[in-house]
Specification:
Layout: E1 12-13, H1 14-19, H2 25-59, H3 63-91, H4 93-111, H5 117-144, H6 151-159, H7 161-180, H8 182-203, H9 208-212, H10 218-227, E2 238-239, H11 241-246, H12 261-291, H13 296-324, H14 327-344, H15 353-381, H16 384-437, H17 448-453, H18 455-461
Parallel strand pairs: 1-2
């Protein structure tokens, strides 16, 4: 619950302080720290996709045998997403990020010691709790350390680190799997986030907007603002006037109150369908390509290309949103993802492998651009008191789509082959476009210097 008191006369408005002036080096450093957390998230989250073809052959299993294992991780991600948002809004963004990174790092290390599918499934569930929690917590940190005029690009640059982490996982797996095997893949892959989590304990500060709502932590906030080159008088009181003006309730109920319910439900649907498509690629793309006759290394390059395209797609979409607002760039990316998936059904995998890999990169460009920038829409729709909860709830519904992908991917590849798999991706992305068209409070355009001159209106619009 919020501990914010009624603002005293002359209280410093934290929203005005953060949105005015330069985006300082200290603020940018915090965004980089949040982004690196997401790199670790994407890295550890996608290691299993590269290991599945190897484990199928080594243990003599079928694709269907791995569906519960993949689903267990995604169930954990859904629970982690929902709980991390509530935790972050109640206890702080800092420990939500740190705890998430340490949980998925330690659990990933332990997978390297597992001796059967049951053990891998349990540990992937635990890792999923951390992987799911890292995304909403880190994006909230980014949103609350970034001025309004830079917020969309900063959030997208943070989320784009999921496919970036997956791309690095592909390069890492390409070197480790052939030489050291799948156990080393998880042991070494888990040690990286554990080490990074310890670094975060030492250097990651708490969100200034979170601190502003807790009078007992105002001295900490004053010191933090000094580090951000925004000094305030000793003993200063704080408020978040623009945010509090729009807040009537906290928690999940606030997401469905009048004026916000349609956007919330539309975002839930968009996240569900988009993560169904994205995690169908993360979990099953190498397996699908391997089943179609490509060797493990080439099959893995398909997912690496998908992630590589996603990095560029997300950044370009974020730039377009800054100039044109979020509605049309997001709709065009979602429709592009659908069109690309349908077009790839006509490519022969055996004779046109290069064309297929390039097409998968383009599909990743559109699908991940949509996914990454939807978090910025969440940060725009929801105010401080429920921003982490709102983002986490959308992601939790998205995880339900990801869970469905664990079973649907295995079933569709088995029954419909690569063609059925690609049609599933296309239908999901078409549904994303429809859902995003129903969102009413899209991010407005902010055009260069004009946005700076209209700062007060822009800041209010960001709420």
């Amino acid at each position: 619950m919020s501990a914010a008191a009624a603002p005293a006369p002359g209280a410093t408005d934290i929203g005005e302080v953060l949105d005015a002036g330069h985006w300082t080096t200290m603020q940018k450093t915090v965004v980089v720290l949040a982004a690196l957390s997401i790199v670790m998230d994407g890295f550890d989250g996608q290691l299993i996709g590269f290991a599945v073809p190897v484990l199928i052959k080594e243990w003599g299993l079928s694709r269907g045998d791995f569906a519960p294992v993949l689903a267990a991780a995604l169930v954990g991600m859904g629970i982690g997403s929902a709980c991390a948002g509530l935790f972050a809004d109640r206890f702080g963004r800092r420990w939500a990020v740190i705890g998430s990174v340490l949980v998925f790092g330690l659990a990933t290390c332990a997978i390297g010691l597992a001796d059967g599918l049951w053990g891998i499934g349990v540990l992937r569930f635990v890792a999923g709790l951390g992987i799911g929690g890292a995304l909403p917590s880190s994006t909230t940190v980014t949103a609350e350390f970034t001025p309004a005029r830079r917020r969309t690009l900063a959030i997208t640059a943070t989320i784009v680190c999921v496919p970036l982490g997956g791309m690095l996982a592909g390069l890492f797996a390409g070197h480790v799997l052939p030489t050291l095997g799948w156990r080393a893949l998880f042991l070494l892959g888990g040690l990286l986030p554990v080490a990074y989590g310890l670094i975060l304990i030492a250097v990651l500060p708490e969100s200034p907007r979170f601190l502003a709502r807790r009078p007992n932590r105002w001295p900490e906030l004053a010191r933090l603002l000094g580090r951000m080159s925004r000094p305030v008088p000793a003993g200063a009181a704080f408020t978040d006037a623009t945010e509090q003006k729009h807040e009537r309730r906290e928690g999940v109920a606030a997401l469905l109150e009048t004026g916000r319910a349609r956007d919330t439900i539309a975002l839930w649907c968009a996240f569900f369908l988009n993560l169904l498509a994205v995690y169908s690629a993360f979990s099953w793309l190498p397996t699908m390509l391997n089943a179609a006759g490509l060797d493990v290394a080439v099959a893995g390059s398909g997912l690496t290309a998908y992630n590589f395209g996603g990095v560029f797609g997300a950044l370009l979409c974020a730039a377009a949103i800054t100039r044109f607002g979020s509605r049309w760039p997001l709709l065009l990316c979602a429709l592009g993802g659908a069109a690309t998936a349908f077009a790839l059904t006509g490519v022969d995998i055996g004779t046109s492998t290069g064309l297929l890999i390039a097409g998968l990169g383009l599909q990743g460009f559109f699908a991940n651009a949509t996914q990454s920038t939807m978090y910025a829409v969440c940060a725009h729709v929801y105010p401080t008191a429920v921003r982490a909860t709102g983002t986490a709830s959308a992601l939790a519904f998205g995880r339900l789509g990801a869970i469905l992908s664990a079973f649907a991917g295995a079933a569709v590849i088995t029954s419909g082959g690569s063609g059925g798999y690609l049609v599933m991706l296309g239908l999901a992305m078409a549904g994303v476009a429809l859902s995003l068209a129903l969102v009413g409070r899209h991010i407005p355009a902010m055009r260069g210097a004009a946005s700076a001159r209209a700062a007060p209106a822009a800041v209010a619009a960001e709420r």
